[in-house]
Amino acid sequence: MKKIFVIAMGVVKELFRRKDFYFILLLIFAIILYAGSFSFGGERGFYRYFKEIVLSMIYIFSVVIAVSFASRQIPMEIESKSIYSLLSHPIGRGEFIVGKFAGVGIISILSFTSFYIVFIISLLVRKDYSTPWLLLLEGYYLQILLLFFISSFAILLSLFLTPAPNIVVSLLFYFGSNWFGVSIPGYIYFPHLELFDLKERVIHAQSIVPGWVILFLTIYAICWTIFFLYLSWLVFRRRNL
């Protein structure tokens, strides 16, 4: 566990060294201020419009950060040849994969939590209490599961693709699942990322999701995440570096 923790912390440090996170956080602030300057369709209509813009940006940016970090972890280590020094220590390739995934997972939690806190504060400032707080928590929790889910997928792809095409494919997977999934032949056999998106429920202040559904989605996400990580380990352990 200590080895996995060390690898994960190395990934997390990368978040604070890069300017992407700070830029996106400032951009979200700007979007909130911009969206907040409009007022139309009555108070109820405005609140829905405001939440739709801000939540959409938060969900998309959190996925972009998770995918961009996950896609470059292994290729970056191989390109810089630092992977040889890592694996020369008594670190298994499975530990290496899990450590990288854990680091990306922590980054995903930190970034999305920061964005979501900004969103919650914006609701409090505007005194918008229409959405049940439990639903807001469910939306937060399911998005974290989705970020783990898609990060493990991007890590698997990183063993076959360079970062740029990996990011494109992973984002197509995300947007395709949410927007065009049901129209794709045989989609029933693919991962259903749209199940984790509670954005519409939050925007329209609908009822909370039953506990058994949350439990099912938790198991569903864990199974797919483990599956992608297991495939990553199978491919990586057979690769000559």
Automatic annotation (TrEMBL):
KW Endoplasmic reticulum (keyword) present: no
Keywords: Membrane, Transmembrane, Transmembrane helix
Transmembrane segments annotated in the record for this chain: 21-41, 53-71, 101-125, 140-161, 168-190, 210-236
Entry's Gene Ontology cellular component terms: plasma membrane
GO molecular function: ABC-type transporter activity
Pfam assignment, any one: ABC2_membrane_2
Keyword Cell cycle attributed: no
Superkingdom assignment: Bacteria
Signal peptide as annotated in the record: none
Name the UniProt record assigns to this protein: ABC transporter permease
